[in-house]
Design goal:
26% strand; 151 residues; seven-stranded mixed sheet
Length: 151
Amino acid sequence: MSGGGRPAAMAGAERTLVSTSPGATGAAGEALARELGAGDVVALSGELGAGKTCFVQGIVRGLGATAHATSPTFVLVNEYRGRLPVHHVDAYRTTSLTELLDLGLEELLDGAGVTLVEWADKLLPLLPARTIFVEIAGVGDEPRTITIRRP
């Protein structure tokens, strides 16, 4: 195993899959959750309505949390308990890096849990080198193309 408890074969890898339903998008998140370990950061990007929260719901389920994950758009951070603590950050409504730092984002990113960040493009300078990037393309009735990149 390499850092974060993931299989060494996944280090530096990129994979792309196609989802044709919200259930399949969530299942892709669950599959990624099996590879996550303490200290991992998952940065999600994609248009409004692409399925970022659906993917996060799958990760949260896959990490064993019993609570249904919801978008923290107004509270900015939700926390869930599973086999690891899960911190779900939504940067959509943030206006500056300072605002995110004031929320304690650096402590979350360096913590012992898994941190999931929606709208991660708003805080790229704050993300650690170990960040796993998930890009979801497609909206409406279109299939989703999900690209997962590991450092």
